[in-house]
Amino acid sequence: MKILSLKVSDTLAHRLTHAASSRKSTKSEVIREALVAFLEHAGKGQGGSALMLAKDLAGSITGPADLSVNPAHLKQFGRSPRRKRAGGR
User: Is 64 exposed, middle or buried (0-12, 13-18, 19+ CB in 10 A)?
Assistant: First the structure.
């Protein structure tokens, strides 16, 4: 096993001491477990499709499922927008 030394703030050192004593473990063991957990999740990011990332939001709003089937929305589809005539006509 390799030896690693690091500097931590007084606050972090206090929290580490408290965590180790409440778990009846050593500070080294707490740090090893935290480092393993961090490295297992590092770089995994949030991959997947947009639906997978927003699956908890899918279906959370009400309204028409697909506006493309509503004839009112298709009335002017594909046509050039009308230009307003000068003179108020």
Answer: exposed
State the Cα–Cα distance between residues 27 and 20, nearest whole angstrom: 5
Residue with tokens 């740090």: 31
Tokens at residue 17, please? 């001491």
Extents of the domains making up the chain: 9-44
Length of the chain as a residue count = 89
pLDDT at 12 (0 to 100) = 96
pLDDT of residue 88 exceeding 60, the answer is no
CA dihedral 41, 3, 22, 36 (to 10 degrees): 10
